[in-house]
Write a structure and sequence with these properties.
The structure holds 2 protein chains of 2 kinds. By secondary structure, chain A is of the alpha/beta class. Chain A has one domain: Aldolase class I (TIM Barrel, Alpha-Beta Barrel), CATH 3.20.20.70. Chain A is 31% helix and 22% strand. Chain A is built from 9 helices and 16 strands. In chain A, the strands form 4 sheets. An 8-stranded parallel β-barrel of chain A has the order 3-4-7-8-9-10-15-16, surrounded by 6 helices. Chain A has a 4-stranded antiparallel β-sheet with strand order 5-6-14-11, with no helix packed on it. Chain B is an alpha/beta fold. Chain B folds into 2 domains: 94 residues, Translation factors (Elongation Factor Tu (Ef-tu), domain 3), CATH 2.40.30; 109 residues, 3-Layer(aba) Sandwich (Rossmann fold). In chain B, strands 4-3-7-1-2-6-5 form a 7-stranded antiparallel β-sheet. A 7-stranded mixed β-sheet of chain B has the order 11-10-9-8-12-13-16, sandwiched between helices. The longest helix of chain B is centred in the C-terminal third of the chain and has 13 residues. The radius of gyration of chain B is 18 Å and the shape is globular. Classes of the chains: A alpha/beta, B alpha/beta. Chains A and B meet through strand 5, strand 6 and helix 8 of A and strand 14 of B.
Chain lengths: 305, 259
């Protein structure tokens, strides 16, 4: 018998625990040549702000050992652009469409959340309080308990569906931030966003990125992400969605063992645009190989002793 | 146009000079149609410091032999690993990516201007143009005689003009110094160019001065190649555009600070 890969994040039923991370999968159509996005557990679409944003100047990316830095800076068409131009093209997907909601002010988060709330085929939002690449807002909200709590509380008041908060790893205690947003009614947390880093060109003695610093992603951050998922899952009752450098099914299983209910695949989509179906298949193979009939029994299954 | 992820086998790996090599690759399946100016994202296995795929121009396509050819500059660990690939080794490609050069109508005269490794996409372009009945002139700028690459192949599709910085071969100077740009010599309907940005900007300005359309093929630091990561942007009159999906071929009139 085939094992069950189905998991639940609050009210969301995921056919499998594999979703794509915001900013790494576009809106879905970009990958339709490689596989059917409806096979995913969910799609976190690109960070969406109140107004259209051009993002940061080029260069925005630097390759690093086993990873990359980006400083895209939330380039997007704005919430109205998403609703009018993009949503009609993706709302037919048979998967959970989750909009990553970003902003510079609490008012902007509220505006975007309210508008997304009216979309029938978007059952959840991911509150991005952890973008390291914007001057105002973004990570500033996610690096202290009072501000993380304040923005979560404000959005919770206007948004009735599943509210996920994406946490920053650039903090002393991610567990405390997770507890703060849980206390304000968050339904789940995504752990982690990118780690703040930088790259220098020794020859020119200049920074590689136009913004000097950027967000590090890829396998380079996986051990940090795993540790933070484990610490967070031990500190809160709401589900944790794990991400950070997942390239293979084994990586995904490790996050689930550490306490994640589901995972997001990000940078790996750039290396292999068809990686997600392979990860889903690999998870199923793992369950069969270990005689496990339901993936839920694997969550927080880390055997410390 | 549908994109594919295929494994290709190395059919030939040929050094052109100390800095460049040509890789001929063959997939097990039939090649999908590829248009001049398009590129591929090549996964580099066996290089510890190479994480992302390498975006590389399609240099030539041979449907009969079912091969694609890449002309590559050795720039770092990734391209050096590709340079060491042996016959029969496997390399994974995502292709064909990006838009393509516009092909004019039969009887037109086209000037193809390439600098350094930027000549790479112009061979396949010349081939397709010539097949469409367009008169092809290729202007190739090389550092020295040693860096003139595959001159005989370019000559198959039309006239080949050369500039070198020391003047030991062809005209002395950069491509923009060639006499073909003089008013009395210039008789082209369209200009295509690929190479370093300053060269392409100068070429685009010369084309504008001659009142002919010009297309430039850009190279930007890139991750995904499919329009998802938004890293390879270029500033245009319509805001930031992705080099990988809106380009790599652009009309310089639409690029900010180009003309």
């Amino acid at each position: 018998m085939k094992p069950s890969l189905e998991v639940k994040i609050h009210n969301l039923v995921l056919k499998n625990p594999v979703m794509t991370a915001s900013g790494t999968f576009g809106y879905g159509p970009e990958f339709e040549d490689f596989f059917d996005p409806s096979t995913l557990g969910g799609i976190f679409v690109k960070g969406t702000t109140g107004k259209l944003r051009q993002g940061n100047p080029y260069p925005r990316m630097a390759e690093t050992p086993m990873g990359m830095l980006n400083a895209v800076g939330l380039q997007n068409k704005g919430v109205d652009g998403f609703i009018n131009d993009i949503y009609p093209r993706i709302k037919h997907y048979h998967t959970n469409l989750i909009v990553n909601v970003s902003g510079s002010t609490i008012e902007e988060y509220i505006e975007v959340a309210e508008k997304i709330n009216s979309l029938d085929h978007v059952p959840a939002i991911e509150l991005n309080i952890s973008c390291p690449n914007v001057k105002e807002g973004g990570m500033a909200f996610g690096t202290s308990c009072p501000s993380a709590a304040a923005v979560t509380r404000a959005v919770r008041e206007v948004y009735q569906k599943t509210l996920i908060v994406k946490l920053s790893p650039n903090v002393t205690s991610i567990a405390e931030i997770a507890q703060a947003v849980e206390g304000e009614g968050a339904d789940a947390v995504s752990v982690i966003n990118t780690l703040l880093g930088m790259a220098i060109n020794a020859e020119t003695r200049r920074p590689v990125l136009s913004t000097v610093t950027g967000g590090l992603s890829g396998p380079a951050i996986k051990p940090v992400a795993l540790r933070m998922v484990w610490q967070t899952a031990n500190a809160i009752k709401i589900p944790v969605i794990g991400l950070g450098g997942i390239m293979t099914a084994s990586d995904a299983i490790e996050f689930i063992l550490a306490g994640a209910t589901a995972v997001q695949v990000g940078t790996a989509n750039f290396i292999d645009p068809a990686v997600c179906p392979k990860i889903i298949e690999g998870i199923e193979d793992y369950l069969i190989r270990h005689g496990i009939d339901n993936i839920k029994s694997l969550i927080s299954g880390l055997n410390i002793n | 146009m549908r994109k594919f992820i295929h494994d290709f086998h190395v059919v030939e790996n040929r050094d052109l000079n100390p800095g460049h090599f040509v890789l001929t690759l063959k997939p097990d399946v039939e090649l999908t149609p590829i248009f001049p100016g398009q590129f591929t994202e090549v996964r580099v296995d066996g290089s510890a410091n190479t994480f992302l795929r390498r975006p590389l121009s399609i240099h030539d396509v041979d449907y009969k032999a079912n091969t694609v050819t890449l002309l590559v500059q050795k720039k770092g660990d990734g391209t050096n690993r590709l340079a060491s690939m042996k016959y029969g080794e496997t390399v994974n490609l995502v292709y064909p990516l990006g838009n393509c050069f516009h092909i004019g109508s039969s009887g037109e005269r086209a000037l193809l201007v390439g600098g350094g490794c930027g000549v790479a996409p112009l061979l396949y372009l010349g081939k397709v143009l010539a097949k469409s009945g367009i008169h092809v002139t290729t202007l190739m700028g090389a550092r020295t005689e040693e860096y003139i690459m595959e001159a005989e192949l370019y000559k198959r599709y039309g006239e080949l003009l050369i500039t070198t910085e020391d003047g030991k071969a062809g005209t002395k100077g950069y491509v923009i110094h060639h006499e073909i740009w003089r008013e009395r010599n210039f008789s082209f309907d369209r200009v295509y160019t690929c190479g370093p940005d300053p060269m392409m900007k100068a070429v685009a300005r010369l084309a504008a001065r001659h009142h002919v359309p010009c297309e430039v093929s850009l190279e930007q630091t890139m991750a995904c190649g499919v329009g998802a990561c938004l890293c390879c942007v270029v500033e245009t009159n319509e805001g930031n555009k992705c080099t990988c999906t809106d380009g790599p071929v652009f009309d310089p009139n639409n690029l900010i600070n180009w003309l």
